[in-house]
Structures are given as structure tokens and as C-alpha cells.
Amino acid sequence: MSVETTPAIDAALARRLIDKQFPQWAELPLLPYAPAGSDHVIYRLGAKLSVRLPRHGGAIKQARKEAEWLPRLAPHLPLAIPVLVEVGEPDFGYPWPWAVSRWLDGEVATVDALSGSHEAARVLAGFLTALHRFDSEKTDDLVGLPLATRDAATRSAITKVGDAFDTEAMAKLWDAALAAPEWNQPPVWFHGDFHTGNLLTTSGRLSAVIDFGELGMGDPACDLIIAFTLMSAETRATFRTALEVDDATWTRGRGWALATGLNAYVSYAAVNPRVAAQTTRQITQALLG
Fold it and tell me: Residue 215: how many CB atoms within 10 A of its CB?
């Protein structure tokens, strides 16, 4: 099966995979979890575990990547991150590795709850500071792609969204982001998909960061997306000051927010009101700066 093919995934398949490969959990109840992301089908396995099966070829390296790197990162980070317990193998016609992880309690962060929180902005800046300063050997397998690789797709998306956003303003921001000086320091670790949906809260406070499928090394500007998915103009200022972001990196970060927001908008907004609302905010806030 090619990585472009989308396999059929249901609870019966997940149950067979678990029971055969990890029979110690055969008696645990398996329940679908929603809303899952676009990359994985997720199940709760008992009270303390979760099962994630990639939906498409773009996510098939995540299980082994997280199994290798998250245990190294976790002791250095101020918020909880996933703990992988096992990596499952392809079977029963399912073609890719899959993961069993510890269940992280918490609610998905929301703009309504945290956009005005200067404390949350500082916590997120602290998390990124710790991640970006994590010191390990450079790994060529995880080198991130520069913003310019998104040029054609982003310009196409600007055209496709039509009057939904200010086309001239988007083109101007995108040109500025590509013209900004590139990251000229040693590559640093980045999360790579650092947006509101990948943050958990407990008792109203940030508690965990999840989904490290885009974890890599390079320019940390991609992690500034969180400033435009979650924060207000005021809390963005607090975040930027705490993270000590220079003008060029901030501009590239706005470019990342615009590019990823547009990509999700043209791909999912027409069929998913939740994505439409989230990406509309992301694009609008990126334009505001």
C-alpha cells in the first residue's frame, strides 16, 4: 500500500492490533476519542492509555520519532509532554507504525479561556525557551524546511480564499516574511505544530503540550504560530518580550502563521466549522501582527 492511500480505521481494527501485539491490555475497554486531529484516529484504552493510528502517510513517522526523542526532552521542559509506552507494528492490512501512550488528563486550551492571560503567555514563552535551548547532537533526519518552501502553496491559497480575507494585506505580509533575514544561528529544536489545539489545561492553567509529529531542528520561528492562534495583541506582546524575539524572527513567525492557517483553511474550512473559526482567527491575527 502506498503512503498516499488512506486505510480504513475503526475500533475493530484497533482492538485486533492491541489484542495481538499487546495482549496485556486485551481486557481494557477501547473507546473512540473525539475530536481527534486530522493526522490520527485516537482511542482511549482503559483509564490510563491512548492509542493513535495515523490516517495518512504524512504522519507515519511520528510514533517512532516521539518514542526516540520525547524521553530525552521531557526532563528539560516545564510542561508535561506525551509518554510513549509502546510502538505497534503494521498488521491486519493496516500499513503503518502506531502508538500507545500514557493518557494526559486535561482540557484542550481555548482562546476564550487563555487569550487574555499574561501568565499563560509567559508559561508558553518559558516552554519554548527550554525547548529551543535543549542541547543534543544535531540530527539530519529532523532538519526543518525553510519558510520559502511554502511559497507556491501559500500564494495559491491567497488566491483561492478570495474575499474571505484581505488579499493585498496577505500578499504584503508573505512578501515581508520571505524577505526577512533568515535564521543565522545554530539550528534549535522546535515543536513545529505549536497551536492552541496542541495545548492542554487543568484547572484553567496550562499543563501539557502534545502532538510532536513536526518536531525538528532549525529556525524556531515556526513555533511563534501560538501567538496568533491563542493570544490577544496584549498577551502577544508579553509573550514576545519573554521569549526575546527579534524583528526578523517575529516576521517569519507571522509568515508561518499565515501559511499554515491558509493551508488548513483551504483544506478543511468548507467542511469543518471548528477549523474555519480557528484558522480565520489565526490568519486575522497574523495580519494584525
Answer: 21
Report yes or no on whether pTM surpasses 0.85. Answer: yes
Residue 225 lies in a domain: yes
Instruction: Tell me which residue of 72, 71, 128, 82 sits closest to 105, measured CA to CA.
Output: 82
Find where cell 493496516 sits.
94
Identify whether residues 125 and 88 lie together within a single domain: no
Asked whether the predicted pLDDT for residue 32 surpasses 50, the reply is yes
Task: Using alpha carbons, list the distances in angstroms from residue 273 to 154, 159, 264, 279.
Answer: 21, 21, 12, 10
3: pLDDT strictly greater than 60? no
Nearest to 257 by CA among 276, 237, 285, 238: 285
How confident is the model over 171-192, as pLDDT tens digits? 999 999 999 999 999 999 999 9
Residues 111 and 97 in one domain: no
CA–CA separation, 211 vs 256, rounded Å?
18
- Domain match, 27 and 117 both: no
| Gap between the Cα atoms of 169 and 157, Å rounded | 14
Q: Residue 280's domain spans which residues?
A: 107-288
**41, 91, 103, 60 alpha-carbon torsion, rounded to 10°:** -60
User: Angle formed by the axes of helices 273-288 and 167-179, to 10°?
Assistant: 60
